[in-house]
Amino acid sequence: MPVDNPDIFVDFRRELHRFPEISCQEFGTQERIAAFVSRFTPVNLTKVGNTGLLLQYGEEQNGPVTLIRADIDALPIREVNDFSYKSQYEGVSHKCGHDGHTAILARLASHLADKSIQKGRVYLLFQPAEENGKGAEAVLNDPNFAGIRPDRVYALHNLPGYQQGVIVCKPGDFTPAVKSLIVTFKGKVSHSAEPEKGINPAYLMAYFTLTSKELENIDPNSDDFALLTPIYATLGEKSYGISAGYGEVHLTLRTRNNERMEALTNQLLTTLSNLCEGTGITIETAYTEAFFANQNHPDAFEQVKNSALKLGYAFIEKQEPFKWGEDFGLFTQKYKGAMFGIGAGENTPALHNDDYDFNDNLIEPAARLFLAIIESHHS
């Protein structure tokens, strides 16, 4: 089958869909990608971030350096779809479209194989572990990435609920800062008939959860936007003669930018300290799955917009950021760049839903948009 046949990229996407792997476990995915894209003759094909891959096109050391990134990991969600390429792994499936993002980047590689890069270099990054926020950091800390120093970085995400093929972007905040706070409460167990002889953290946990709600500002247009979502809580044991002495509350925090996240975190910790004072309960805090806000540089935004319009694509300049986190934000903290969205269809299941599937009609137009961005930057 010829390389320029778009059907092979749909087949590749569906192969990835059949064999999904969660964050930090994408070893088979890495092998499948490497085997598929090697035919597109990159200058270098390098493992990066443990389970990711980096392709290089162009060898000129002087000139622009562009990085295009796609994420490759799946989610721990059981698939309910029953099509021929459904997930073969119980409890794991591609419910965010990273299989499609990977296919888009593979299609872009095929275009770059046909168009030699005369000025500078282009890198295509198949990044692992986006869903848990560890992949971007792993890539940036990898010695194989250290010497690249791109002056432009780009990525996309498919967007259910938007017209198929429409490009959605905005300058500045595109996706929020996100992190999860884990609070442990340590009191003292006692007989449930004599709770006064112990220290039960149940009421303090409840007060903290209710008080955290008061710190919210759910207006997405506000610079002070803050969303605090209770995720998990546990208390004691299922032993009805024991008054609990231990509990946990997990919250996910979202703000428009990193500065607001720091302020919100400080507010929460102060609230927690005040509530615990004099109770005899000790607390410990930890953070997990942290995502930096994705900041679109105005010049990179203009490149996305102008390239989309040049191709005749519909374009929406979004007024407020999306509310989901994206670890590409770590790249835009270090380098000028932009993330944009491409509409997946107005009546399609939402991201992270068990009946979601990527729209294969997006592979070709998205790859061509990336190609147009590269050409505008390397002309």
From TrEMBL:
What is the protein named?
Amidohydrolase
The species this protein was found in? Spirosoma aureum
Cleaved signal peptide residues: none
Q: Which domain of life is it from?
A: Bacteria
Q: What does the record say about how the cofactor binds?
A: The Mn(2+) ion enhances activity.
Q: Which residues bind Mn(2+)?
A: C96, H98, E131, H157, H352
Annotated InterPro entries: Amidohydrolase, Bact_exopeptidase_dim_dom, Peptidase_M20
Please give the Gene Ontology molecular function terms for this protein. Answer: hydrolase activity; metal ion binding
Cited Pfam families: Peptidase_M20
Listed cofactors: Mn(2+)
Write out the entry's keywords from A to Z: Hydrolase, Manganese, Metal-binding
